[in-house]
Amino acid sequence: PCQKVLTGHSGSVYAVKLTKEGDQICSGSEDGSIKLWDVESGKCNLTMTGHDGTVNAVDISNDGLVV
After folding, report:
1. Which of 28, 29, 31, 39 could share a disulfide with 58, CB 3.0–4.6 Å?
2. 56: closest CA among 24, 14, 19?
3. The pLDDT of residue 25 is above 80
C-alpha cells in the first residue's frame, strides 16, 4: 500500500528520481514543472516552472545541489 501520496502537479508525472540520501524526491510532469519533495513529510519544498512542454526526465547531482 501507498505510504504517502504526493499531490501538486496539474498533469501526469513522467519522471521521478530519489536523491542519493533518500530524503528527497524530484518529479517532472506534463504540466512543465519540476517539483522537489521531502520524503518524510510529503511536502513540496520547491517548484520549478518555465518548460515549454512535458518534463520527461529528471536527474539530481550526487551532492544534491543541482537538479
Report:
1. 28
2. 14
3. yes
Q: Pick from 5, 21, 23, 22: which is nearest to 13 by CA?
A: 5
Q: What is the pLDDT of residue 4?
A: 85
Query: 59: which residues sit within 8 A by CB, 6+ positions away?
Result: 17, 26, 67
Q: How wide is the angle at C-alpha 11 spanned by C-alphas 53 and 42, nearest 5°? A: 120
- Do 47 and 11 touch, CB atoms closer than 8 A? no
pTM recorded for the entire structure: 0.89
Beta strands in the chain (DSSP E): 13-18, 24-29, 34-38, 44-48
Q: How do residues 46-65 score in pLDDT, each as one tens digit?
A: 999 999 999 999 999 888 77
